[in-house]
Amino acid sequence: MATAPRPRTTTRDPEELAARLTAWLDRRLPGARVSGLAVPGSNGMSSETLLFDLEHPDAPVRGCALRLAADPAAYTVFPVYDMARQHRVMGLVAEHTDVPVPRVMWLEEDPGPLGAPFFVMARAEGRVPPDVMPYTYEGNWLHGATDAQRATLEEESVAVLARLHDQFPAKEAEFLLPEGEGSALRRHVDAQRAYYAWVVEGLAPSPLIEAAFARLEELWPDDEGPAVLCWGDARIGNIVYDGFAPAAVLDWEMAACAPREVDLGWTVYLHRFFQDLTVGFGQPGLPGFLRRGAIERRYAELTGHVPRAMEFHTLYAALRHAIVMLRIAYRQAYFGEVEVPADPDRLILHHATLAAMVRGDYWTGEE
């Protein structure tokens, strides 16, 4: 899918991590035994996940997952990894909604035991639409499903967002607001500007990303809508499915207090990112799946809230994804995996899509 090798996702030694985790657990459950420790092949480049079984008569659960903040010495993708914040968000979602989230257990904010803060939660059982190769490619369970089965998965996944946004008390989400002035949306965008500035500090900036920020200002919605708890990384690749129904919603590190459309735009665009890549490599992908119009209609049916300013919000999602991709590319260059081209925009895999969104002709002909 790319000319460069897949970026490394960790600089840590699994055997050393296992030994340190065992020592840490022994202080909480003396005599506990850790078995079957594994690092999933789908691990990302931000927080890392370890899976293990916990054997002890007083263990809260047997199957566990550990979310570990990125190694601060390994050219991290994000400047801050607030594990306590993620732990709190997941606990509050479980308390206030019926959105399925894994049971959260121990939180360790001291970086000493494993080299960075982490928390332990119950392991979710089921299957996840793959990112590598993406579920839009042939040869995986979702691509091989029937149209009716994919329709069920789509409807149930949009329902996750609807229930989260409707059920969670908006006031309880305000602790997620970034510092600054203005509305929740303005603060969210300003935080992304600050993230971009951090990414390019001392490096070549991206003219395309800067043009996208300027276009956002031109498209800024007259009515931003109310702020709610947004999941943040709202995409089907972060849901564990039992059959075609969501069994667990994962990856809350990007949770935010923001308009509903921040989640909807991310859901729409992250699927289109995979779909566009797949078409570009000569496969049809899943052209009838997770279409923007269908997502908007389904969400409106479930909530009574008609999504607004979606051209703004899909552009914003593509822009945010571009900043992450630029950081990942510079990280690859740091590790000697790629060379930085004269035009830094070429480091953004979806630069053509983002440019089309900036021009305003990407969604031409879409329902």
TrEMBL record:
Residues 82-276 form the Aminoglycoside phosphotransferase domain. Transmembrane segments: none annotated. SUPFAM superfamilies: Protein kinase-like (PK-like). InterPro entries: ACAD10_11_N, AGP_Transferase, Aminoglycoside_PTrfase, Kinase-like_dom_sf. Pfam families: APH (PF01636). PANTHER family: AMINOGLYCOSIDE PHOSPHOTRANSFERASE DOMAIN-CONTAINING PROTEIN-RELATED, AMINOGLYCOSIDE PHOSPHOTRANSFERASE-RELATED-RELATED. This is Phosphotransferase.
